[in-house]
Amino acid sequence: MALPERLLAAYQQARQALLAERTDAGYWVGELSSSALSTATALMALHLVNPFEHEERITAGIRWLVQHQNNDGGWGDTPRSRSNISTAMLVRAAFRLTGADKLLSAATQRLEEYLSQQAGVGPQQRAEAIRRRYGLDRTFSVPILMSCALAGLISWHEVPHLPFELAALPQSWYRFARLPVVSYALPALIAIGQCIHVHRGTRNPLLAGLRHLTRRSTLRLLRHIQPTSGGYLEATPLTSFVVMALASLRSRDTVVAEVIRAGVRFLLQSQRVDGSWPIDTNLATWVTTLSIQALAAAGSLDDLTNQTTLLQWLLDQQHRQRHPYTGSAPGGWAWTDLPGGVPDADDTSGAVLALWLLLGRPTAFPAQLEQACHWLCQLQNRDGGFPTFCRGWGNLPFDRSGPDLTAHALRALRLWHPPTQPVRSRLPLLISRAWDYLQRCQQPDGSWIPLWFGNEHAPDEANPVYGTCRVLAAYRDWQRQQTIECRRGIDYLLNAQNSDGGWGGARGCTSSVEETALAVEILLDLMPPADQPATVGRGLLWLIEAVETGRYRQPAPIGLYFARLWYYEKLYPLIFTVAALGRAINRCNTANPLPLPELAVVSPPDPLPNL
């Protein structure tokens, strides 16, 4: 079978698999990986609230953890992740708090051996290992240390204070307060800060008095920003940390009781049949916009039935009120259709691109898209880049500007033609500053480092392949292929290709479907057919064989939630594969098709040729 025929067959198989994942309502929900970290924190929260009432749930979760212990005795964030000190310490705390360590002596002993090798034997050494992992960012280190202190694994003096009293400031002042946690961790700042204050005490009498005075007001804020689902950000770890912190206070405060009750309801509803918990409920809006763009890249948008229903569903996900959590103005989209979502730059950009396609590529935007583009413009930071949630909040991870977010915003804003003169005159400066930011943050090797994606096996756990592909998409859309930065980015991808023809997060990392598909798609778009055909052809062949062997359904843990918390999403490899193979088919149908005949001799199940 000639390679174009194999290409077409592989594309049709991937496309049908992606379309089959749609819900009856016409959009995609996907499925996030189960998480040992999420499961451990949820078990601790339920135990502290009522171990007898939730005994069956706790037992199921413990059973799942034992079944997914790694060979080295530790746990990773996903069943496909390598062990790390954070997740292992939280599982150890869950075992100790629930009493499971006495019943699971073999698993506990292996876990202790892992922790001793990674962080030492003593409580102080292990606490220091957690603090060292996260540095100045206390978003995740303090919740982990609090959990260990609640389980009696470390002393409360090893747990740094969190200044929850700062949450009593007006919301517009947060970015000036230099909070030690990122913007989305405000619930943890309040609940865990109060927990530490009660268990550890505050020596400074003035500060202790201030914390006493702000206790009620910050608790009311905590309840005010809790979504109707009960889950902060729809995230199991964040909600669990809040619940366990408040439950440990044994307070009769009605506001505390309301927060705990709603949080427990969320945890019970989000536990899976096998006893585990994911890190978040779903990424429905995000995977839907990615799927729409992937089908459009392949010229298969017409395969979507009930496009009008899908269009209306996506429009309905736009936030139309100021968000109580971040103070975000109306006009943005979150990653999910559930109440715990928070509008952000990446999902708003994705929604604009997807809606533009569903609306038939209009030159004049409807009011909702006009509002979305205004929303994006107001988010731009002083450095010219775009952050996730809030402008100017800080420089901690996931609050600062990101190259992938900035490139995505540039792609969305390219489609916009503001009808009013003041905005039209300011837009070129905004665009210019964004390009300047991307130029400044390009790495010496030509790559860009993304904010919300990584690779456990790459240096610094970054994912320059993903980041470079996403940034180069903006250069493609804006037809800036001849710039020095774009050429350097292309060179980086060519040099990062593995010997098997695929790509991982960086050169030498195991090839994955997601990263290979992203690289193939963007190189097809940016490279003339006569340039480096073997590179693109080998990558394309790797991807075709991944479909033929079924590997294209195996997601890799390249997603980064907050604070180095890994996840994988089962739709990512399907979505990215459809986009890449569809681009290749479109190229084969042009006047300058891909020079691929030299690869046509390979047919499954033969191994990849050494080209």
Provide a descriptive summary of the structure in words.
The structure is a single chain. Among the domains are: 34-278, Glycosyltransferase; 317-441, Glycosyltransferase (Alpha/alpha barrel), CATH 1.50.10. Helices cover 53% and strands 1% of the residues. The protein is built from 23 helices and 4 strands. It has helices spanning 3-20, 36-49, 55-67, 85-98, 100-103, 105-119, 123-134, 138-150, 186-200, 205-224, 236-247, 254-270, 284-297, 307-316, 345-358, 367-379, 403-413, 421-440, 464-477, 484-496, 513-526, 533-548, 572-588, and strands spanning 34-35, 277-278, 559-560, 566-567. Strands 1-2 form a two-stranded antiparallel ribbon. The chain has a two-stranded antiparallel ribbon with strand order 3-4. A hairpin with a 5-residue loop joins β3 and β4. The relative contact order is 0.11.
Shape descriptor: globular
Q: What profile does the largest beta sheet have?
A: 2 strands, antiparallel
Which ranges are low-confidence, i.e. pLDDT below 50, for 5 or more consecutive residues?
595-611
Encode the helix/strand succession as letters.
HEHHHHHHHHHHHEHHHHHHHHHHEEH
For this structure, what is the CATH class of the domain at 34-278? Answer: Mainly Alpha
How are the strands ordered across the major sheet? 1-2
Strand residue content? under 5%
Radius of gyration: 25 Å
The secondary-structure class comes to mainly alpha
Oligomerization state: single chain
**Fold-level CATH name of the domain at 34-278:** Glycosyltransferase
Number of strands: 4
How many angstroms separate the termini?
19 Å
Helix content: 40-55%
CATH architecture of the domain at 34-278: Alpha/alpha barrel
- Number of helices, counting only DSSP H or I runs of 4 residues or more: 23
Q: What value does the average pLDDT take?
A: 90
